[in-house]
Amino acid sequence: MTRIDSAHETLTEEFRGTGSISDSIPEPRATQADSGSVLERDPGMPSSTWRLRSDAWEYLRFGVKRLALGNDDTDTLTPDSEIYRSLRSLETIEMYWAGFGQRYVTGITDLLEAGDYVTALDRIGRVVNRLRGDTVPEEPREEFIDELDRLETSGDGDPRTRFEVLVIDETTAADRDTMRAEALRLRNPADDFIYEYVIVPSADDAVAAVLTNPNILACVVRPGFSDRTRQSLSKDLKEAIGLARTDSENTNTIAPARSSLASVQRVLGIADTLAAIRPELDLYLMAGAHIEELAGALTRRFRRVFRREDQLELHLTLLRRVSHLYDTPFFSAIQDHARRPVGVFHALPVARGGSVVSSKWIKDLETFYGLNLLLAETSATSGGLDSLLAPVGTIKKAQDLAARAYGAKHTFFVTNGTSTANKIVHQALVAPNDVVMVDRNCHKSHHHAVMLTGARPAYLEAYPLNDFAFYGAVPISRIKQMLLDYRAAGRLDEVRMITLTNCTFDGIVYDPERVMAECLAIKPDLVFLWDEAWFAFAAFHPVTRRRTAMSAAKRLEERLKSGTHAAAYRAQQSRLFGADGDPAPDAAWLNERLIPSPDARIRVYATQSTHKTLTALRQGSMIHVYDQDWVREAEESFHEAYMTHTSTSPNYQILSSLDIGRRQVELEGFELVQRQLDLATSLAQAIARHPLLRRTFRVLTAHDLVPAEHRGVGRPMPLRDGLTSMWQAWAHDEFVVDPSRITIEISRTGVDGDTFKHEHLMDRYGIQVNKTSRNTVLFMTNIGTSRSAVAYLIEVLVKLADRFEEEQAQRDPELPFESSVESPPLPDFSAFAPGYATDASLPDGDLRAAFFNGQRRGTVEHVSPEVLRERVRAGEKPISAGFVTPYPPGFPVLVPGQVITSEVLDFMAVLDTREIHGFDARRGYRVLRG
Q1: In the β-sheet with 193-200, what is the strand arrangement from edge to edge?
Q2: Please, which residues have CB within 8 angstroms of residue 702's CB and are 6 or more apart in sequence?
Q3: What is the pLDDT of residue 375?
Q4: CA dihedral defined by 317, 322, 323, 325, rounded to 10 degrees?
Q5: Which residues lie closer than 8 Å to 157 by C-beta, 6 or more apart?
Q6: What's the pLDDT tens digit per position in 124-177?
Q7: pLDDT at 132
Q8: Residues with Cβ within 8 Å of residue 694, at least 6 apart in sequence
């Protein structure tokens, strides 16, 4: 008998043991106000359930308090009142959260129907206090609480950090009470954490729970669960559950089980689904017999298999696992160092505060930053602190934990920003004269890295958004066409790497799995560098994660192993190559979604500005690696490049923040990203719906930022229509828009973006934004954004809109109002000049030679814009001697060796930015002499 067969017998035994108890599972009580099976108050998209739950309880407290104080007419307490609408919603929602549950909501309903508003108010207050983080009284007044209430709330006032454990099993009410009571009994004062159970009866309910409840950190599967939910869920949540379960089935590379193994496959199926949605969840199987066979057969999906009676072992395992997630090896080492008495005899006077605390003149440094900052300063790499350049201890462990969190095979910390991270990767993977296909409007560090390595950049053009004065992203058709052009020229072997920005500053997000798959179908040994400076948060939400480089690399690796993929590859090859072995015309390659060879190598790198979107001190960045040829091809060169660009005196505070920031996202990243996306959607909705705001500002949507040919048929702002809409768009569209970025078009204000940013938002109201264009302003939410901050921004925008309308009303009606700010056309990359271009038929050139020529005295002249324009009109082709990078748009408009054209000069002439690197307004452009 095989292990799977034995596992099947064991699970079948489990089903026999549970019996059919579905009748014992309570359903939400319907009232005459309900219409059908869908709640009148829709629980909404899973990404906002946290807010719906909180608001519903807060409203109940307000409404019932008015009743208890006699300030409201009890006749308004009808089945279709707001109070009862909230109760019906909560009766569904509370099933997926620990601590109170459906019976608690039902009990409050009973109290209201009996007219006992004071007791109902007390019970509602307990929930609101818990949600606010307030202490729940350990011994509530007996007249206001019964034994069921005590059991459901487990309100013990314990200050320890709580988490929740999902249990999937059809159980009776008595069984659930017993499980919760057992969990309380097992609590030990010495435990660092405490947990509570969320118990659901079906696979659908399990998916709903992990989509809506970010407090769940572990899941215990007991084989007696049913398949479908009996809850009255919203249409969007039902569709999201279906998408999640289908998604995991489509990505499962394990061959389908025989029908006799259906029971095992059902357990494996829910495990795969939950792991795909929330990979940070620990999955455990609790069985009744033959667990030895189960452990061997199911170890790939489950961390451990337990017998039902092993409650203590499960309890200890749950706590131990969370302690592993909580572990911050380097941050803990720094704390230990700061507490130790140490004699400092090395070159760092500020260490231990030596040069500060005894000074008469700079004590304010300690006063402002605190003594711990100084106590933790050291240049030592021993005593538990480790070396960033050659880590073997706490830094090595911290980097390994980060790799686990982000789904990478290797992760490296960088303490001087993603600009340096990009240079490390370029130097590690690229040699002189290799061709690197580079998104032309990527961050300047990529252009500088190409120059340093001696590689030859072949610039890829993103589609322009001329109406808004910034670029989008590079269509897959352009990337494929450039690869095909190199193949036709016999130079495909020179193409080494493709680097793209995902997501762009303005929020345009690629489909990395598709891009890599289709490119590997043309050249199976390509290396990919994804600049995810603004996308670190995406790894911690089930929808956004699929478009991260590391997640895409893992899925692509699994896909290449499947027999289905191999068959599809062979079938496509027969279409794309004739009998003589010659490839079909380019049109055939461009019109099909290309399938890579099963032998293609997955070599993917991602650089990440962790500090931009997650908790880390400024310049805290990471490099994530998913490279199948790491040891053979890249490890030694990577370490050399890392040594080249990394300081021998790295900032330990930055390293500590990267370490503790990793802890945060593993334990609460899902919750934080949920809130971030939801608040951004709220902001967009508020602007679009407010009568005054929508007259003055316009929220740009996917229909504005992604041309029709590069998007699906979805809604302009998918998340605003629910998680299902976003899920479908992010699964299928070529480009999507990061919903945490809200770009506002401000043409109707009559001022440009730079003026709006500095004079109106910052100087007048203290609101900071990163980016503007001539006629747009970008607002970003992050994991630290609060509802109050969003409300304040809306308030400010209303004031500004009112101000702009008043100014327009007072204008002389005879003078025409310029309702838009002129937006200059965005110039494409012209070409490398002869002498620097490698091949007239292909776009790459020798950036490095042009750069160093531009550094030599006597080879460069400064030419004013007016004189340079006359030269261009006369037919000359002047050559840029350096990088010219205006902010905005923030990428080099000119690079060394590039031909300066009238389009570039026109763009620069109307670009009134305050900061342009490489251009001196007094002396003009730096031009190479002929």
Answers
A1: 193-200, 161-168, 216-221, 282-287, 304-307
A2: 711, 714, 715, 716, 717, 718, 729, 735, 736, 737
A3: 86
A4: 130
A5: 135, 136, 137, 138
A6: 999 998 887 644 333 333 333 344 444 444 445 567 899 999 999 999 888 988
A7: 79
A8: 687, 688
HSE-up (13 A, CA, CB side) for residue 826? 23
CA distances 234 to 22, 56, 91, 170, 544, Å, are: 21, 16, 13, 22, 22
CB 93 within 8 A of CB 43: yes
CB atoms within 10 A of CB 159: 8
Q: What residues does 924 pair with on adjacent strands? A: 920
Predicted confidence at residue 914, as pLDDT, reads 74
Nearest to 97 by CA among 193, 231, 210: 210
Q: Which pLDDT score is estimated for 343? A: 73
Cis omega (within 30 of 0) for bond into 341: no
Query: What is the distance between the alpha carbons of residues 224 and 552, in angstroms, rounded to a whole number?
Result: 34
What pLDDT sits at residue 216? 95
Cα dihedral 542, 548, 549, 550, rounded to 10, equals -30
| Residues whose CB falls within 8 Å of the CB of residue 749, separated by 6 or more in sequence, listed in order | 696, 697, 756, 800, 804
d(CA 396, CA 398): 5
- Which pLDDT value is given to residue 657? 96
pTM for the predicted model, two decimal places: 0.90
Show the tokens assigned to 686.
């508020």
Residues of the chain with pLDDT under 50: 1-47, 134-155, 253-260
Length of the chain: 930
**Ramachandran region, residue 375 (left: φ > 0; alpha: ψ -120 to 50; beta: rest):** alpha
| Pairing mode, strands 603-608 and 736-737 | unpaired
- Cα(first)–Cα(last) distance of the chain, in Å? 82
What are 490's two structure tokens? 């016999």
Dihedral angle, C-alpha 368, 371, 373, 378, nearest 10 °: 140
Identify the residue whose tokens are 């979805």. Answer: 714
Please spell the DSSP secondary structure of 139-170, one letter per residue. Answer: S--GGG--HHHHHHH------SEEEEEEEE--
Token pair 């999902």 is at which residue?
166
Q: What values do phi and psi take at 220, rounded to 5?
A: -110, 120
DSSP state of 98: S
Cβ atoms of 847 and 457 closer than 8 Å: yes
Residue carrying structure tokens 């988490």:
163
Kindly calculate the radius of gyration of the chain based on its CA atoms and give it in whole angstroms.
30
Give the C-alpha separation, 882 to 884, whole Å: 7
Tokens, residue 510:
């690629």
Q: Give CA–CA dist 579/586, Å, rounded.
A: 17
